[in-house]
Amino acid sequence: MTTNALLDFTDLPRFDLFQASHVAPAVTQLLEDARSTITQLEQSEAIGWDTFVVPLEAVTERLGRAWGVVGHLNAVVDTPELRAAYNENLPKVTEFWTELGQNLKLFEKYKALQASHEYTALSSARKRIVDNAVRDFRLGGAELADDKKNTFCRNSGAAGCTLDTVFRKRAGCHQCL
Fold first, then answer.
1. pTM assigned to the model
2. 165 falls in which pLDDT band (50, 70, 90)?
3. Rounded CA gap, 63 and 35, in Å?
4. Does pLDDT of 85 surpass 50?
5. In the predicted model, what is the mean pLDDT of residues 70-95?
6. Cα dihedral 6/63/151/133 (nearest 10)
7. In whole angstroms, what is the distance from residue 63 CA to residue 73 CA?
């Protein structure tokens, strides 16, 4: 059985073992893992660096790293199979990041951490991570009413990603066909 190179996080990305057929199963698994972790964090009362930030950062880092490999290879390898796998999974990944950026429960937890005694004891680097997360949730539309979030999504997020792909196709970018 072949190991999925996109799910190997033990060292540097395994470009030498990568296959386009790895993309869909890896994205599916990583999205399931991320959504499961997010659900657990939403339901947890614990709001601290180790109990909240670390698990969220770990699970989203894995998805980001794997998708970064796919995006990089899509830009430099250009095979029909990889292009198809990329285009098939791009909306799923974009939808996840858009939903994450608008997750009011996670946003509230970051704000609670920022207002906590633990925050004052964090290193400046960790404070910066928390501060940037709060900023990113605001910029992602987490504070918007649900109807405004839908408008925001139509004007950016997944729609913007899709429009970018359509533009590149129409501009003759062979990587997007």
1. 0.84
2. very low
3. 11
4. yes
5. 95
6. -160
7. 15
pLDDT of residue 167: 40
pLDDT tens digits for range 86-106: 999 999 999 999 999 999 999
At 119 the pLDDT is: 98
The CA distances from residue 126 to 68, 120, 133, in Å, are 24, 10, 11
Domain range annotation of the chain: 17-176
Give the Å distances, CA to CA, from 9 to 16, 69, 84, 139: 14, 12, 24, 30
For 34-43, how does the pLDDT look when each residue is reduced to its tens digit (9 = 90+)? 999 999 999 9
Which three-class secondary structure string do you get for the chain?
CCCCHHHCCCCCCCHHHCCHHHHHHHHHHHHHHHHHHHHHHHHCCCCCHHHHHHHHHHHHHHHHHHHHHHHHHHHHCCCHHHHHHHHHHHHHHHHHHHHHHCCHHHHHHHHHHHCCHHHHHCCHHHHHHHHHHHHHHHHHCCCCCHHHHHHHHHHCHHHHHHHHHHHHHHCCCHHHC
**Topology of the domain covering 17-176:** Neurolysin; domain 3 (1.10.1370)
